[in-house]
Design a protein that fits this description.
By secondary structure, the chain is of the alpha/beta class. 32% of the residues lie in helices and 17% in strands. The structure holds NADP nicotinamide-adenine-dinucleotide phosphate. Keywords: Signal.
Length: 254
């Protein structure tokens, strides 16, 4: 697929460039600074991609980039959610502009685009309930308004998926493009976290679910490379089972 990757200079973004190439996609990177991206990638990787400069808050420019480069899919890793609930940043503005740009381009090409967005563990549901985990552990709350926007889209206007990882760390500081993926595959589940460990603790009044969520959270730590690989691999599947749902992931090999 030809993929517009928005936020290619980020921690996840540079690894998405590599993973998309490993899985045979054509990459159009959308970044604020081409020079910055060039400084972050080995020349052998940078020379394989097309780079478009623009702001992720500019929905018209995003639509134009999609249409001019004939992209069939978009991955958005631009913006970073604030951890503390009282902190605010521009992720909601970025997210809604990207979504608007993707939706508009779909209308103009008469076919919805496939798109992966980034959320966080907190927008998944506490297993067995219809309540988000972030109701119990109120951090990274900006993802909640983003998932609301996705769910409010008219049917079939964007073939979206929302990856909802917990903390992601780097396996390698060097970015490379192996001929095939070398990372442990993630186990995924839609709507609630996969392989949740249940406990009687959840029945403790008021604090039980918070305690259980906090105990489970570190089990969902994964690597940036694994998540990049998950998205890139899924984009090779035209009938992805993750379309229209938030997706939780775990490294079950740990
Ligand atoms: N890291 C984690 O552990 C983790 C866990 C769960 C979810 N997530 C989510 O995953 C996503 C990616 O995380 P990350 O760690 O890769 O973040 P990051 O390293 O901070 O990267 C953010 C990217 O957004 C770009 N950006 C910011 N504002 C922009 C704008 N106005 N126009 C264009 N680009 C803009 C930055 O570009 P510049 O280089 O130009 O600044 C950078 O490429 C975020 O949504 C985050 O909330 C992360």
């Amino acid at each position: 697929m030809k993929v517009l990757l928005i936020g290619a200079t980020g921690n996840l973004g540079v690894r998405l460039v590599a993973a998309l190439l490993t899985h045979g996609h054509v990459v159009v990177a959308y970044v604020r600074s081409a020079n910055k991206l060039e400084s972050l990638l080995p020349t052998s990787i940078y020379s394989q991609i097309t780079v478009v400069e623009g702001n992720a808050k500019d929905s018209s420019l995003i639509s134009r980039a999609i249409l001019e480069h004939n992209c069939e899919a978009v991955v958005n890793s631009a913006g970073l959610a604030a951890m503390a609930p009282w902190k605010r940043n521009d992720l909601p503005e970025i997210f809604s502009a990207v979504l608007k740009g993707v939706q508009k381009a779909g209308v103009q090409r008469n076919e919805p685009l496939r798109a992966w967005f980034l959320g966080g563990l907190g927008v998944l549901q506490f297993p067995g309930t219809d309540t988000m985990l972030s109701n119990y552990v109120p951090i990274f709350l900006e993802h909640r308004q983003n998932i609301k926007l996705l769910r409010a889209l008219p049917p079939r206007s964007v073939e979206w998926s929302l990856l909802c990882p917990s903390t992601m760390t780097a396996e390698n500081l060097q970015v490379s493009v192996p001929a095939k993926s070398i990372h442990n595959k993630l186990t995924a589940n839609s709507t609630s976290p996969p392989l949740w460990q249940d406990s009687w603790l959840k029945h403790i009044p008021f604090l039980g679910k918070l305690i259980l969520a906090a105990m489970n959270a570190p089990r969902y730590d994964t690597t940036l490379e694994q998540n990049a690989d998950f998205i890139a691999s899924d984009l090779t599947d035209r009938e992805s089972r993750w379309i229209g749902v938030p997706v939780g992931v775990i490294d079950a090999t740990k």
